[in-house]
Amino acid sequence: MDTISPSLSLPDSPREFGFYVGGRWIERGLRKHMERVSPGHDIPVTRITLCTKDDLDDAVRVARRAFKDRRWSGLSGTGRADVLLKAAAGIRERAEEIAYWETLETGKAISQARNEVDGAASIYEYCAGTARSLHGDTFNNLGDKMLGLVTREPIGVVGLIIPWNFPFFILAERIPFMLAAGCTIVAKPSELTSASALIMAEILTKAGLPDGVFNVVTGTGPEVGQAMAAHMDIDMISFTGSTVTGRNVLLASSSNFKKVGLELGGKSPQIVFADANLDEAADGVVFGVCFNAGQCCVSGSRLLVERSIAEKFERLVVEKFAKVRIGDPLDPRTQLGAIVSPAHNEKILGYIKKGEEEGARIACGGKAIGTKAGRFIHPTLLSGVSNTMAVAREEIFGPVLSSIPFDSLEEAVELANDNDYGLAASVWTSNIDKALQVIRSVQAGRTWVNTTITGGPEMPIGGFKQSGTGRETGVYGVEEYTEIKSIHIAIGRREPWVG
Ligand code: TXE
After folding, report:
1. Ligand 1 atom 15, closest CA
2. For residue 38, which of 47, 51, 30 has the smallest C-alpha distance?
3. Which among 51, 170, 242, 243 is the best mutation to test ligand 1's pocket, defined by most ligand atoms within 8 Å of the CB?
4. What are phi and psi of 392, to 5 degrees?
5. Tell me: the pLDDT tens digits for 123-157?
6. What is the dihedral angle through the alpha carbons of 264, 270, 271, 277, rounded to the nearest 10 degrees?
């Protein structure tokens, strides 16, 4: 690990946050709180309020009132777009502040956090267009005596549960779409990373979002998150997180049959053919598993590589892993930052051990990096993995790549699909026919050819199989937050039924 001194200094004391309801901060008061310790520095950086179920109820009441009186949904698309554009400008104004707290709470590299903040602002800009272009349909083919209209209406009050890996970016992949549709929101960020959602609430108010349309209630998953999923007055839940918790959310949502959107875990394959540009493919594969220290739902954590080049390709990966700059998350040169929590660190190291016990060989890495503060794990390549091992089937969520050889295109597809998850997949080849054949057969919601983990808000995200339900972003994303209504309009005099 580079011994590099950060160019930004650490806070002298934890930044204290209340929570945000009805367009204003609510102070912690006598509520319990939690101190978030920076994963890269081991010092407390933020103090977050642990809200109660009553706080959630209050926030839902406020969001319901804001929905009912149409203070937001009653605006024109232009009116909504105006607020979303101002929100984007507000994000850009406070970009450095957001990136700083995001880095301290998550442990991610600040250069990455800065990119994410910039990307988030661009999503709000995209959604301004969506607010104006969202529309329904007409049916002029119902005969001369009827005209049919199909309108889209905002679904109502949405509960938004966000994880810790991309607290600000995932929020941006959800909030502006919900707002473009005209919904009101109660958000619960992860208890580990609440700061950026709270800052966003302030930005939205300043951008002119009417009070009560976006609210943030902080606290734990089992208390606030579970209550949100079960809440009788929430119309839809958008949940991003683990598959286990996603199942809980789905079960709890049956209380009032609210709509549920789930973006869950993954075990995404990187399929590398012998005819690929191997150097570029290795670079992509290394990026795909090191991005956010592998704590990424679309992390390319399964390397499926054509047997004839497997050894050569693994060597390339090992060489590139050695060059990844691991270090202080606050240093702008750092590419791979810290692991989010001690428990998660243990989970990743436990998987590496399990892989070895099951017969995989550690080609590089395989252990934690000894540092005075924080938790960092060497990028790890597990070679000789078979698709039945836990390290091939389960989400490790760390910088750990499991390499599995294949002999034919058909076998590559079969291996890729032989998993409970179906979130993402990448294929690397110079043969476009081969690329398309694989991509068409692979069961995944988000796929890439000769690249990985990239895209824009135009493109939908979401999973097949146990990776989730529904789609976020793009026109598909905004439509998720609408109800469809069919309107039948009779033309001319009614043909009497009676007499
Ligand atoms: O996730 P949880 P955790 C995966 C990854 C990771 C594992 C566990 O494999 O190792 O999940 O991480 C809230 N009802 N992903 O424990 O519990 C919680 O407060 C309602 C993949 O952090 O799913 C947080 O806001 N909500 C993933 C959010 O759910 C509850 C990103 C996510 O936490 C709840 C993160 C409950 N009963 C982890 N319990 C991805 N798809 O990117 C917790 N929460």
Report:
1. 242
2. 47
3. 242
4. -100, -20
5. 999 999 999 999 999 999 999 999 999 999 999 99
6. 150
User: What is the C-alpha separation between 252 and 212, in angstroms, rounded?
Assistant: 25
Q: Give residue-wise pLDDT tens across range 361-398.
A: 999 999 999 999 999 999 999 999 999 999 999 999 99
Catalytic residues: 263, 297
Mean predicted confidence (pLDDT) in 46-58: 98
Distance CA 74, CA 67 (A): 9
Task: Please count the residues of the chain.
Answer: 499
Give pLDDT, residue 499.
85
- Are the C-beta atoms of 462 and 263 separated by less than 8 Å? yes
Within this chain, domains 15-264+467-485 and 269-449 share the same CATH topology: no
257 alpha carbon – ligand 1 mean position (Å): 22
Going by C-beta distance under 8 Å and a sequence separation of 6 or more, which residues neighbour residue 180? 80, 84, 127, 128, 130, 131, 134, 478
Q: Delimit the domains of the chain by residue range.
A: 15-264+467-485, 269-449
If phi > 0 it is left, if psi is from -120 to 50 it is alpha, else beta; for residue 233 that is alpha
Residue 260 near residue 293, CB atoms below 8 Å: no
Tell whether ligand 1 has an atom less than 6 A from the beta carbon of residue 226. Answer: yes
Please tell me the predicted confidence (pLDDT) of residue 6: 54
Q: How many A from CA of 261 to the centre of ligand 1?
A: 14
Give the CATH architecture of domain 15-264+467-485: 3-Layer(aba) Sandwich (3.40)
- Measuring CA to CA, which residue among 291, 279, 307 is closest to residue 450? 279
Chain segment 399-411, per-residue pLDDT in tens: 999 999 999 999 9
Which ligand 1 atom sits nearest the alpha carbon of residue 397?
Answer: 9
Is 264 a pocket residue for ligand 1 (Cβ < 6 Å)?
A: yes
What is the model's pTM? 0.97
Nearest one of 293, 287, 286, 278 to 317, comparing CA atoms? 286
For the domain spanning 269-449, the CATH number is: 3.40.309.10
